[in-house]
Amino acid sequence: MKNHYTPRxxxxxxxxISIMSFGLILFKLSLMGxxxxxSMVIAIADRIGIDFAIVMVVSNCLFFAVEWLFNKKLIDIGxxxxxxxxxxxxxxxxxxxxxxxxxxxxxLSRVLFMxxxxxxxxxxxxxxxxxxxxxxxxxxxxxxxxxxxxxxxFWCRILTDGICVLITWLLGGIVGIGTVICAFGLGPFVxxxxxxxxxxxxxxxxxxx
Length: 209
Hints:
Blueprint: H1 7-30, H2 36-48, H3 52-70, H4 77-100, H5 107-131, H6 137-149, H7 153-170, H8 177-185, H9 187-202
């Protein structure tokens, strides 16, 4: 992780998190499943009857405790912005959309929401990752587990995501094709947006600011 900030990196991180919040809501409105950790948060919020933004902030507190105890080097400004901004922003986006639009629930509309969510979330992830100013509390879990155990990151991520999916299912939350796509299918899209949009805007072709 680079050890200094520039306006482009900070703006890239903020833009990524803002777009990411909207992408999460598109997945939520599709009713076809969200990313594993987000699905778990939504399921918990629905079960106890409170806004999912609150549950997201609280759950990030728990994830951050692990990050703080075992992998402080992953913590930076982006960690805290992700922690406190994504949930409230997503909740704000959802309230705004529902107030302005009678959200359709037919199958075609749901597929369109999910498809848009894939593109929006991938674009957001490309900005957030390219900015490189801190790892989100949840994302730090699999990285830390890999570093501490020597297991491949892929399997550590499968483990953490799998636990989230199991909790979602046990709570009666939605586990669908959107969950699978978020867990396994965003990589090529994120790479495309990173190469063609995020890196050219945040870094020049030689990888310097």
